[in-house]
Design a protein that fits this description.
By secondary structure, this protein is α+β, with helices and mostly antiparallel strands. The chain has helices at about 1-5, 10, 15-20, 25-50, 50-55, 60-80, 85-105, 115-120, 125-130, 150-165, 170-185, 200-210, 270-315; strands at about 115, 135-140, 225-230, 235-240, 245-255, 260-270. It has a six-stranded antiparallel β-sheet with strand order 1-2-6-5-4-3, sandwiched between helices. It is elongated, with a radius of gyration of 25 Å. About 20% of the residues are buried.
C-alpha cells in the first residue's frame, strides 16, 4: 500500500510540472529516492509476509524492524507538524508503522502459548499426516487431567466454552463478523457427511493409512471443523475454505504424578497469496484477543467439570 502511494507521487504532487522548477540534479535525486523507497517497501513487505519467523529469530532482524518503526513514527509526527501535510498520506504512514510493528508485537510472550518443539517432540500420528502443513502455534490449555480422563472429555468442555463465547462479547462479535464475511465472499463450504472424501483432505490421507471409507467418519464438529480421528490421548480435526486448509491437534501430555496437560496445535496451509495475507492479518487478533479469552473460558469450564465429577464421586461413596 505504501509502495502504491509513492508510485502516485508523480500525479498526486504534479511532479511532471513542479520538478521542472528545480535544477536537473535535484529533480533526479527526488525521483530516484522515491523509486528506491518504492523498491524498499516492496522488498520489506514481501520479507515480512513470507519470512516473518526468520526475521524474528535474529537479534539484528528484530532491531531492524524496531529502527524502521522509530523512523516512520518520526515521519508521521513531521507530517502532522507541517501545515501542508496530507491527512491521507499520514493515514498510509500509520498503516506502514503497523506493518513494521506487527512482527515485533507477534514476538511478545503470550500466556498459554508454548514453543512448537513441545509438540514436535511427542510421537503423535499427526506428524505423518501433515508434512506439508506449517505449525502456526502451540497452546497449553489451562486444564489438568488424570490418567482416567481423555482428550474427548476435554473436547466436550471445549465445545461448551466455544458455544458460550460465540454468542457474546468481543470474541462472539469477531466470530459472527468472520462468518458474515465467509457468507458474503463465499469463503466457506457447508460441512457434513460426504459419500466420497474430498481429494487432498486430511481425512482422505488418514483413510488411506487405515483402510477406512467416507462413512467411517463422523459429521461436522464445532466451528465447522471435521473430526479426522479421536483417541484417548490425541485427536485431530480439519477445516478447509477458500483462504486456508487448517488442522487442529489435541494431545494429552504427561507431567508426572498422575497429572497430564493438554496441548492444542494449530496447523495451517494458506491458499495462495490472499490466504497468506489473510492469515497474517488475523494473527494479532487470534493471538491477543481470541485465544487468551477462549482459553480462559475453557479453563473455567474445565474446573467446573472437575468439580462436578468430584461431587458425583463423593455422592456415590
Amino acid at each position: 500500500m505504501a509502495a502504491l502511494l509513492h508510485l502516485s507521487f508523480w500525479n498526486m504532487f504534479e511532479w511532471t510540472h513542479e520538478l521542472t522548477k528545480l535544477r536537473i540534479v535535484n529533480s533526479n535525486i527526488m525521483q530516484m529516492l522515491n523509486l528506491f523507497i518504492i523498491a524498499f517497501f516492496v522488498y520489506v513487505g514481501l520479507l515480512l509476509l513470507f519470512k516473518t519467523r526468520a526475521v524474528l529469530s535474529t537479534f539484528i532482524g528484530r532491531h531492524f524492524l524496531g529502527l524502521l518503526t522509530t523512523l516512520w513514527t518520526a515521519r508521521l509526527a513531521m507530517e502532522f507538524y507541517f501545515p501542508e501535510g496530507e491527512l491521507a498520506f499520514a493515514a498510509v504512514v500509520v498503516f506502514t508503522i503497523l506493518c513494521f510493528s506487527y512482527p515485533l508485537i507477534s514476538s511478545m510472550k503470550i500466556k498459554y502459548k508454548i514453543d512448537n518443539s513441545e509438540h514436535l517432540k511427542q510421537a503423535w500420528q499427526a506428524h505423518a499426516l501433515l508434512p506439508d502443513f506449517e505449525i502456526e502455534d502451540v497452546w497449553e490449555l489451562p486444564v489438568e487431567m488424570n490418567h482416567l480422563q481423555t482428550v474427548g472429555d476435554m473436547q466436550k468442555v471445549f465445545a461448551t466454552a466455544i458455544a458460550e463465547i460465540s454468542g457474546a462479547g468481543i470474541v462472539g462479535w469477531l466470530f459472527q463478523f468472520r462468518f458474515f464475511l465467509g457468507r458474503l465472499f463465499g469463503w466457506d463450504d457447508e460441512v457434513g457427511t460426504v459419500d466420497v472424501l474430498p481429494v487432498g483432505s486430511v481425512r482422505a490421507r488418514y483413510a488411506n493409512q487405515k483402510g477406512l471409507k467416507a462413512e467411517d467418519f463422523s459429521e461436522k464438529g464445532g466451528a465447522q471443523f471435521v473430526s479426522v480421528y479421536q483417541m484417548k490421548n490425541e485427536a485431530l480435526s480439519e477445516i478447509e475454505n477458500e483462504t486456508v486448509h487448517a488442522a487442529v491437534h489435541y494431545g494429552k501430555v504427561p507431567k508426572g504424578n498422575d497429572s497430564y496437560a493438554v496441548h492444542m496445535t494449530v496447523y495451517v496451509k494458506p491458499k495462495g497469496l490472499f490466504g497468506k495475507m489473510y492469515m497474517q492479518l488475523i494473527k494479532p487478533i487470534r493471538l491477543y484477543i481470541v485465544y487468551p479469552i477462549m482459553l480462559k473460558v475453557i479453563g473455567n469450564h474445565w474446573r467446573k467439570y472437575q468439580q462436578a465429577q468430584l461431587d458425583c464421586e463423593l455422592a456415590l461413596a
